[in-house]
Amino acid sequence: MPKKISNALVNIDLGELSKPANTLIEKISDAGVGLFAPWQIKRVAKAEAAAAAAAAMIRAESEIQITDLQRRAVHRLVEEESQYQKNMEGVTAKALPQLNENADPDSIENDWIVNFFQKSRIVSDNEMQDLWSRILAGEANAPGTYSKRTVNFLSDLDKTEAELFTKLCGFIWNIGELKPLVFNFEAEIYNRHGINFDSLIHLDSIGLIQFNGATDFLTTNLPKRFVVHYYGRPLTLEMPKDAGNNLSIGKTLLTRVGKELAVISGSKPVQGFWEYVKDQWNQYLPKPKTE
Questions:
Q1: First and final C-alpha spacing in the chain
Q2: pLDDT (tens digit, 9 = 90+) per residue, 227-267?
Q3: Rounded CA gap, 169 and 162, in Å?
Q4: Measuring CA to CA, which residue among 50, 105, 100 is closest to residue 75?
Q5: Which string of b and e fits 88-108 if b means at least 16 CB within 10 Å?
Q6: Which of 17, 222, 242, 262 could pair covalently with 21 via S-S, beta carbons 3.0-4.6 A apart?
């Protein structure tokens, strides 16, 4: 009979999972993180056992005179571990369908897994669980993609900040690497999506971007002709010199943590932004060839 996981958030037949999914579950269990029975005893079962032992000690010491405070403490322990268990299983269940056929969960460091679930177990919001699941799946697909620093950072990121960062990521272009192009933070195309001076200052203060309101950052040492992309849509640029060209990319840069999170932010292209940037770089558009 196929093994089955089932709780309020999870209903997965382990017998029907892909090999990478099975491997990830086994890897998580091997790292000492209690997830799905029968792979490993659930954390909630451990909590219940600890609670029972505590109650027994109290009975022995006080001849069954357990105080209301002690009862509440035992109850809280069980309820808290149950919620943690539900959250961990929810994040994992969301991650499994995102695994690639060539995913390599075995190569994830055990310390990384333990740290990941210590941080993600408190996350019950559905949308934030989606974000955590993309990190778990991304690390399984390519171990080493997400640093502990990024995982720890995400644990302190609230939902409003995550949503704001996702909005900023809607303005990211691929120019050799990911670059959020904010040329004028007072422009309507940014402001209608919540991107303005104050929001950029905040994203800078929490460590997702570098923001310079006075001058533009540059991408340097560019060739004569090259192609940049906005969500896969190309734009060809032609610079004045044969080599060593510089290109203004606006007033923001992603930090290392920002780069890692931008990939799984769930952002979508902003309507009209490709045309907006094309106009900003109008002087670098290839000139039509004349007969």
A1: 74
A2: 999 999 999 999 999 999 999 999 999 999 999 999 999 99
A3: 11
A4: 50
A5: bbbbbbbbbebbeeebbbeeb
A6: 17
Taking the CA atoms of 30, 114, 42 and 9 in sequence, report the sign of the dihedral they define.
Answer: negative
Asked if 211 and 252 count as a contact pair (C-beta separation under 8 A), the reply is: yes
CA distance linking residue 30 with residue 94, whole number of Å: 20
pLDDT digits (tens, 9 = 90+) for 95-147: 999 999 999 999 999 999 999 999 998 899 999 999 999 999 999 999 999 99
* Burial class, 87, CB count within 10 angstroms (exposed 0-12 / middle 13-18 / buried 19+): buried
> Which value, in Å, is the radius of gyration of the alpha carbons in the chain?
25
Give ∠ CA 112-177-249 in degrees, rounded to 5.
130
**Please, which residues have CB within 8 angstroms of residue 229's CB and are 6 or more apart in sequence?**
173, 174, 235
Strand pairing class (245-248; 252-254): unpaired
Instruction: List the alpha helices (DSSP H) in the chain.
Output: 19-30, 43-62, 68-95, 110-120, 126-141, 148-155, 159-169, 188-191, 197-205, 256-262, 273-280
Q: Are 24 and 141 in contact (CB under 8 A)?
A: no
Cβ atoms < 10 Å from Cβ of 156: 10
Placement of tokens 């940014």 in the chain: 190
CA-to-CA separations, 286 to 128, 245, 273, 274, 281, in angstroms, rounded:
43, 15, 19, 16, 11
